């Protein structure tokens, strides 16, 4: 069975550090036996198709190992199929159509984000900013953008996300990855 996936790389090509050129990332994914490899932006978004009957976790581990072998440093990755990405977009509890892409983010996680992680936070203290939990995703509404968000600082603290790999994408990228993986 052929499946299309998105690979989400965390923390690459930021301020000239941990450089992973997109052409090399595409070649690396092709070297792993994937087809129809495409990238989006320079921030670590790749889409590929595979016939391999592998789980997201197996695909993620293979990609992380290949990146470390090729570039000499570890990059945390998440691999998600197009159906999952479409479900994340469809199940967004915020008015995504009425917002600018920079105001809404999906923080993808390697595992469940139960409400107990965030129980000590008072959501009212951060209004009008807000967050909601979904299936291995945290939806984050930041009207002023992520860079100045007090809520983002609070919910993305390593202590709250301990044991998880997370990576955030703005809503423009969320929509583009759904489109690229055929989830539209």
Automatic annotation (TrEMBL):
InterPro entries the record matches: DUF1697
Pfam families: DUF1697
Leader sequence residues: none
Name of the protein in its database record: DUF1697 domain-containing protein
Organism: Streptomyces gulbargensis
Taxonomy of the source species: Bacteria, Bacillati, Actinomycetota, Actinomycetes, Kitasatosporales
